[in-house]
Amino acid sequence: MPETQRLARDPEPIPEFSESPLPEALADLLERRNLTRKHLGSLLRAEGLTIGRSRLHQICSGQGAAATPEQIERIASVVGVGPGYFAEYRLWRTRALLDPSAIGFERAMENFNRLRGRRSLDR
Asked: Which pLDDT does position 120 carry in this prediction?
């Protein structure tokens, strides 16, 4: 069958989450969605979500400061995945659950024990 008449295959489903660093996960996701960085920037602006062009380049290339959770949330919203798709977001959430200065020592220890699969250190 000629190339132009070949039936399009169903696209490979996007996994629930990525284990890759943000730049790699985002590049893969953009490829799967048939989007460029420029398209991503346009989508963000269309939704009223501002991430400057140079900052978006830094996030996509892994240069500069790490993406903030808010920036990851904005990007995830326009590419159709939850922010937890990105490993850095999941790591941020885990750190937040364990930060005694943010949630208190006792709650941080409860979360730590729950993440370890234990209810208390007494066992």
From this structure: 53
